[in-house]
Amino acid sequence: MKNIGLQNDPPIAQRPNTVTTMKTPPTIKACTRREIAHLLGMDEHTLKRKLDEKGILLLKGLVPPQWQKAIYDALWYPPNYSKQDFEGYG
Description:
Radius of gyration: 21 Å
Oligomer: single chain
Shape: globular
Structural class: mainly alpha
Order of helices and strands: HHH
């Protein structure tokens, strides 16, 4: 079997780790209404009232990222999140 790499290449264990130096976007996962309320700094009942005022009705169960984006667009984005974090979610 031929060595395809350059002969002066250091072994893989000695190469710089480029994976950890890259910035990756946060993973957005489904969460509960309680978690969303906590991220926005309010009580669950306050969140429900504000969503009712905006005409947003949440069904039972976990809130998928697409719905989270709609909630944050209607209200505001929590700290450590931005609109760009939700670009791929509709």
